[in-house]
Specification:
six-stranded antiparallel β-sheet; about 15% strand; 2 domains; elongated; alpha+beta
Length: about 375
């Protein structure tokens, strides 16, 4: 009996190549169709901004496509695995391999290794391309598809509450003592009643708080607008309240997200949802490795028995059940109901055990 990890060099390369070709074709088809549908929904908003045209539509496509690839890459791996196994089963190649003494795990091994390569490429792609594209697209959408801020470290549309007062900044940039706010509006309130509205072009840190030079103040009770040389506000409010007001894990690389979590920890702010997103940056790409195992039910059984379609449906159902469980666990992690590591890794480990159990009990 052959007890090696791979059945043979020829079978390994044959099955891995078959899977990768189908994976690339399925992923390309999904991206083209979904990008076209997404563009139809967003083109109106993009063209609504004065001066936008075809160039901005293509810019949106270049920024949105990496997000679609990252999201639907595991789905493409699942469908490619099912197509590969159904093809091999219909051509009686699986039967021939088993007749030659090749085990079910050895039949799956080439696809698992190929999908591991896909997972590694997916992780690098997410870190180098998707995070930057997501950050840029978010900034562009916050500007209503207007000019994109050049500084990628800019946080847009920031709201911070200081007691009863509300502070809004169009952008917050920099870190630590170099942080600054642009186009600032302070809603001075007392017991929920609006007292005054203060506006300024820029706010910088001063005297343990923030200061606006050449501010404009509107007195609500008098209904008059005046100018003041300086206005101090938000005493004791640290810069991270503005620069990290809205940390989106998808818009940051692994190292950037770790830095943001460390800054928030130092400021005493909760970081559970961000830690779940951090761990999911590792478990998410690895979901591609699960797809051959979950879709393996379509590889075995006689094609002429008439149950091949049912087996393919079962394999697809297992794959989609994993995605549902993964999204549910991540949502529970964001709400704080699950610990971050459990939210990111529990669905992966659960369906790994389910797939192995089904494979061993039915084929081994």
């Amino acid at each position: 009996m052959n007890v090696s990890f791979f059945a043979s060099r020829t079978i390994t390369f044959y099955m891995a190549r078959m899977f990768l070709v189908r994976f690339a074709a399925v992923l390309a088809a999904l991206v083209i169709v979904l990008m076209a549908l997404d563009l139809l929904g967003e083109s109106g908003d993009i063209l609504a901004h004065p001066g936008n045209g075809d160039a901005q539509l293509w810019l949106y496509v270049t920024l949105r496509t990496p997000q679609i690839i990252a999201r639907f890459l595991p789905f493409a791996a699942l469908l490619a695995t099912l197509i590969t196994f159904v093809t091999l089963n219909q051509n009686s190649e699986i039967i021939s391999m088993k007749a030659a003494g090749i085990s079910a795990h050895q039949i799956l091994a080439p696809l698992v290794v190929a999908s591991l390569g896909v997972a590694i490429v997916s992780f690098v792609f997410n870190e180098r391309v998707v995070a930057r594209a997501t950050a840029t697209l978010s900034a562009w959408q916050d500007a209503d598809y207007g000019p994109i801020p050049r500084d990628r470290g800019i946080v847009g549309n920031v709201w911070v509450r200081d007691g009863d007062d509300l502070i809004h900044a169009v952008t917050a940039r920099g870190r630590g003592s170099k942080a600054a706010l642009d186009t600032v509006t302070i809603y001075d309130r007392d017991g929920g009643r609006l007292i005054a509205i203060v506006e300024g072009r820029q706010a910088v840190q001063a005297a343990g708080g923030w200061r606006i030079a050449d501010a404009t103040i509107f007195d609500v009770s008098k209904g008059v607008t005046g100018k003041i040389p300086a206005f101090d506000f938000a005493k004791g409010v640290t810069p991270d309240r503005f620069t990290l007001a809205s940390v989106e894990p998808a818009a940051r690389s692994l190292l950037q997200l770790r830095t943001a979590i460390a800054d928030l920890d130092a400021a005493g702010r909760p970081t559970g949802p961000l830690r779940a997103g951090l761990w999911h940056k590792l478990s998410g790409p690895l979901s591609a490795v699960l797809m051959p195992l979950l879709a393996a039910v379509a590889a075995f059984g006689l094609a002429r028995s008439g149950h091949l379609f049912i087996r393919a449906v079962i394999g697809m159902a297992l794959g989609f059940a994993y995605f549902v469980a993964d999204n549910f666990a991540l949502a529970m992690g964001n709400l704080g109901a699950y610990p971050p590591m459990l939210a990111a890794w529990a669905p992966f480990l659960l369906f790994l055990l389910i797939g192995e159990t089904v494979l061993i009990r039915t084929e081994e």
